[in-house]
Amino acid sequence: MYNAFFGPLPETQKEFKINLKRDFPVLYDTKYLQNNSNIIASDIGFQMDLSSFYKAMLKYHTSEPKIEIAEGFDDYKLAALDDESVASHEAGYDAMVTGYVFFKSLGVLNMYNSLFDKTFVKRMKFYENRVNF
Fold first, then answer.
1. Stated pTM of the model
2. Each residue of 6-62: pLDDT tens digit?
3. CA 10/CA 100 separation, integer angstroms
4. Reduced to 3 states, what is the DSSP secondary structure of residue 124?
5. Largest CA distance in the chain
6. Residue 99's closest CA among 73, 128, 48, 65?
7. What span, in angstroms and rounded, lies between the C-alpha atoms of 20 and 16?
8. Tell me: the pLDDT tens digits for 90-116?
C-alpha cells in the first residue's frame, strides 16, 4: 500500500516512522487506543486484530455515535465479519471497520460528544501519534 501511494517502502523501520510522521502529522492507532484504554480493555478485553476488535465493538451498535452505511454499499453491512464475504476482502470495507471501531471507541470513552469541542484534542493527546508496530 505504501508503494502505491508514496513510493518504494523505506529500507528501515526508523525511516518508515520518519516518513509516516511527515506524511501524517497526527495519527490515531485503533489498536493502541483499545489496548491502552482501561475502560475499553476491561469491557471487551484485549483484541489482537482489527476483525476481533470490530466484532467486540458490535455490542455498542445501538449506542452513540450512530453509524449508518450509505446507500449503494449493502455489502458493507454492520455485522460480524465473514471470511466468505466479498466485502471483507476489500480495502474500503477495512477502512469502514477501522472507522467504526475508532468512533465507537470515542463513544465508549464518552468522548464523542466533545469531538467538535476544543477539549477533544486535549483529551485525545494521550493517544496521539502512538502506534503499535
1. 0.73
2. 889 999 999 988 998 898 898 888 888 887 888 887 778 776 788 888 888 888 887
3. 30
4. helix
5. 45
6. 65
7. 6
8. 777 888 888 888 888 888 877 655 556
CB 81 within 8 A of CB 108: no
Amino acid at 80: A
Integer Cα distance of 107 and 38 in angstroms? 14
Q: Which residues contact 118 (CB under 8 A, 6 or more apart)?
A: none
What nine digits make up the cell of 127? 493517544
Nearest Cα to Cα of residue 127 among 62, 16, 38, 22: 38
DSSP 118: H
Report the C-alpha gap between 109 and 50 in whole angstroms: 18
Could you give the CA distance from residue 96 to residue 93 in angstroms, rounded to a whole number? 5
CA distance 117 to 110: 13
CA 127/CA 40 separation, integer angstroms: 13
- Residue carrying the nine cell digits 508514496: 6
Residue 117 pLDDT = 66
